[in-house]
Each structure stands twice: as structure tokens, then as C-alpha cells.
Amino acid sequence: MTLRVNGDRLRQDLADLAGIGALESGGIGRTAFSPADARAREWYWSRCVAAGLDLRLDGLGNMVAQAPHPADLPPVWTGSHIDTVPHGGAFDGALGTVAALECVRRLAETGVPLRRPVCSVVFSDEEGNYGHLLGSRGLSHGYTADQIAALTGREGDRLVDALAGWTWADGSPTRTRIPAGSVHAFVELHIEQGPKLEAAGVDIGVVTSIVGLGGAVVEFAGRADHAGTTPMSLRSDALLAASAFLIELPEVAAAVGPDSVVTCGLIQVEPGGANVVPALAAVTLDFRDPDPARLVMLERGIAGVARRIADATGVSVTWRPDEPIAPMPLAEPVRDVIRHSASELGLSHVDLPSGAGHDSQNMAHLAPTGMIFIPSKDGRSHSPAEYTDFADVERGANVLLSTVLTLATS
Ligand code: GLV
Ligand code: MN
Ligand code: MN
Known about the structure:
This protein has helices at 7-18, 35-50, 94-110, 134-140, 145-150, 159-164, 196-200, 238-256, 292-313, 332-344, 360-363, 390-409; strands at 54-57, 63-66, 76-81, 118-123, 185-191, 204-210, 212-221, 261-270, 280-289, 316-321, 328-329, 349-354, 369-374. It is α/β, with parallel strands linked by helices and 410 residues long. The chain folds into two domains: 7-210 and 327-409, 3-Layer(aba) Sandwich (Aminopeptidase), CATH 3.40.630; 212-321, Alpha-Beta Plaits (2-Layer Sandwich), CATH 3.30.70. Strands 1, 2, 3, 4, 5, 6, 11, 12 and 13 form a nine-stranded mixed sheet that branches. The longest helix is centred in the last third of the chain and has 22 residues, at 292-313. The protein is globular, with a radius of gyration of 22 Å. The chain binds glyoxylic acid and manganese (II) ion (MN) (2 copies).
């Protein structure tokens, strides 16, 4: 008989986690290293203790839970993240976190013989308040002390300060890197965050590859002046320059390719008074393409427009890029196990790429990695409107369970 997750327990866990950081105005606010993130970790820890699992922390707060196991073989990992974007939804990250916990718990309580351990992992700051896919990047690439010192959040706060008062980390943020091969395989269950599965009426998405991610802060610097007395022709308005720049970005993306996207969701204006001509406008960009060469073209195109606009408007510009995260194909053998698991459970499946970034793209540097998608209602995500029927959640969790069981017994 095929092993199944405990659906009632999974549903309750998802509901309990959704209550942590729930905002009166709707949605969920669990920014990494916030008090709500700490409460979610406390909750997760208590669920691990109740299930008899041990929980380890690393220097960036990545959490790995495991049932005692006699074999000293590289484990199978499964998991996701519990942080959210501002006013995020109840499924992005939370789904893969509670489903992973349920799988590890279910395998432990049924006593099914495993050749190697299965661990449930929660990655820190997947949503990149301080850095794209921060925790998993720490595992796959690591950070130097200088890199850690340079990381700042949306509010301009420093990661080192957030970590200083943070008890959910072990105090060694520069020693998080783990060797390739120390994990046997990694699998993440996630909502699709787009409309394809729902439109096609398919139960399960088998992710073929994950988009490449770039980012930059583009700082336009002009001159503060009086808003009433400075004639328009004498101004050096940093925000007007930034606006002219942003308006051109859709064209830059379209010229690179149909899958290129660029977003500015964050602008900082200084000195920040209604009656002061802006001296500084710093726009934070997120740009993506599934193809590595096109990601580079996109970055060059955007930087070129920034320089041209700065020259034309008489302001100066500084381009501060993030370390890009490369597009990542996922491992065919793991994809095969996912397809087989879905078919065994009588579920339809289709291959599809991910336009969202995921910790899986860092884990793929360490171990053969796969991702399982389930439908998102109306394709909505990074919004309180994010929703997936529980029947789909349970289907996805059962595919995850079957997949990790196969990987842990092989
Ligand atoms: C994560 O959700 C991302 O794609 O930014
Ligand atoms: Mn996510
Ligand atoms: Mn997300």
C-alpha cells in the first residue's frame, strides 16, 4: 500500500503557520529575522520536539530537523522557507515547510525502513530581504565576513545587526557552507505561483529549470533645492531621472527576450520632503531570465539605460549590482522519480519551468535537486490572494512523500 501523509495534521499545521504574522489588513508579514519569523520558528521547533525530531541551526539560521537514524549516509533533504514578502500569502514557502515536516514525521512514526535519513529543512530569508535566497546561498556558496557586513534590508538595516540579537542561529554566519555531496538529494514542494497548472487542469508540475535572478540598486544623485523657489530649468531632480529610467525598462526587457522581466518594487527618496527637490533616488531592481546569456544582456541593457538617462538629465548615477544567481536546470533523475510518484498516485503531471526563484537553485549545486509544483488559484502569489485548495495541497504532499521515500531507499 502506498504511504500517505496525515491530511488532518497537515491542514492544521498549514493553518497554524498562517496565523503567525497574520496582518489585520490582510496577508502575512513574516519578514526574515522579524519577531514573526521568530514566533514561526518557535512553533516549528515545538512541532519537531513533539515528533521526536532533533533540530540543528547554522550561522544564518537555516534549520534542519531529523529523526534519529542508524546509517551515516548523506541524507535526503526536503523543505522550503517560512519567511514571506511584505503582505505575502499563506502558501509560498509555508506549503513546502509543513509538507516536509509531515513527510519526516510520517516516515518516523510508520517506521518504514530507510537506507538513509530524511531531513526537513527551513531556509532563512528566501525572500531576500538581506540577499537573494540568503540561507540556501550560505549553504551552497557561503559568505565572507565582508559580504555579510555589506548586506542590508529593505529598511536600510544591516544583516549583522539583525543576527546580533537573533537566537535562531549559531553565531557563525561565515561558516554555513556545506560540501557538495553531503546531501544525497533535495526536493522542494511549492505552489506554482503562476497560472499554467490551473489553466491546463493538471495536478502536478515537474519543474524542469529555475529562472536566473539578477538585482541591483541604481542610485541617481541630483541636488536638493527649494520646491517653490527653484525654477524647473535649474533643478537636478534625482527622482525625475529615476522615473525616466524606469519608464524605459519594459522596452529593454522586450528587446532581450519574451521571458525577460524587470521589476522595481522599492524606491528610496532623500531627503524625503514634499517641498524639497529630491537629491537622491535609489531604485531597487529585480530582473530575471531563464537563459544565462540573456540574463547578462538584460543587465547590460538596464545599466546602459541608467547611464544614458543620467547623462541626459544631468544627474550622476551609481550602479550597485547584486551577485547574480544563475538559471538552474533541475536533475532529470529526480524529475523522473517525481513523475513516477505522481503516476503511481493516479495524478496527472506536466513538465514546466519556474519563473520564481527558489532555494532549490542553490541546493542544486550541492545535490541532485527536484521541485514539485501544485496549482495556484488564478496564478496569484506574493499577495494575500495566494490560494490553493487543500485537496491539491494533500496531493502535492503525497507526491513529495513518495518521492523522498524512493530517494531515501535507493
Ligand atoms: C521568490 O519568491 C522570488 O522569486 O523572488
Ligand atoms: Mn517560495
Ligand atoms: Mn516568494
